[in-house]
Design brief:
single chain, alpha+beta, 4 helices, 6 strands, elongated
Length: 173
C-alpha cells in the first residue's frame, strides 16, 4: 500500500459517491416539483419536505464536487521527517491494544473509507482533533516512552513509532 494507491482509491470513491448523490438530488428535485405534491391545504407538507430534501441533496453534491476537485489537483510529496506529518501523509495508528488502523491525512472528505490493497484506510483532515494532533509530529519515542503517556517525548532509534496522546502512530511510507 502506498499513498498514490490510496489517493486514487479516494478519487474513485468520490466519483462513485458523486454519481449516487447526483441521482438522489435529481430524484428529490423531481419529487419536490411534481404536480401531485402541490399542497392542497396547510397540513399537506409533502412538497415542502421534498424541497428541503432536494436542497440538502444539492448541497451534498456540491460538497462532493469540491472534495473531488481538491483530490484531483492534489500532488503527493514523500514524507519528510524534518517537517513532520503533513496533509497527504499516510499513517498507521496502533492502539495500545495492538489494533491497527490506517489513516490518510487529506485536504477534505473526512470520514471517507477506502480500500487500498487489503487494508481499509480512513480519511481524516487537519480540522479534526486527531488530525491537529498529528500535524508536525516527527519525533520518535522508545517503546517505554510510547507506553507511558507521562514520560517526556524523547527521540530514539526505534524506527517509525510516534506518540500522540494515548495511541502509538506508525509510519507507512
Amino acid at each position: 500500500m502506498n499513498k498514490q494507491d490510496v489517493l486514487q482509491s479516494i478519487i474513485d470513491k468520490l466519483e462513485i459517491d458523486l454519481d449516487i448523490a447526483q441521482r438522489a438530488a435529481q430524484t428529490a428535485y423531481e419529487t419536490a416539483t411534481h404536480e401531485e405534491n402541490i399542497a392542497e391545504n396547510k397540513y399537506d407538507t409533502l412538497g415542502l419536505e421534498a424541497s428541503y430534501l432536494a436542497a440538502g441533496q444539492a448541497r451534498r453534491v456540491e460538497e462532493i464536487r469540491q472534495s473531488l476537485a481538491a483530490y484531483r489537483k492534489w500532488s503527493l510529496k514523500p514524507f519528510d521527517e524534518s517537517r513532520g506529518i503533513q496533509t497527504g501523509d499516510l499513517v498507521a495508528v496502533e492502539a495500545l491494544s495492538g489494533q491497527t488502523q490506517y489513516l490518510f491525512l487529506g485536504p477534505d472528505a473526512a470520514g471517507l473509507k477506502v480500500s487500498a490493497g487489503e487494508q481499509l484506510v480512513t480519511v481524516i483532515t487537519a480540522k479534526a482533533p486527531l488530525g491537529q494532533s498529528l500535524l508536525g509530529k516527527s519525533y520518535r519515542l522508545s517503546s517505554t516512552a510510547a507506553d507511558n503517556p507521562t514520560r517526556s517525548h524523547k527521540r530514539c532509534d526505534t524506527p517509525g513509532i510516534y506518540r500522540v496522546d494515548r495511541t502509538k502512530f506508525l509510519w507507512v511510507r
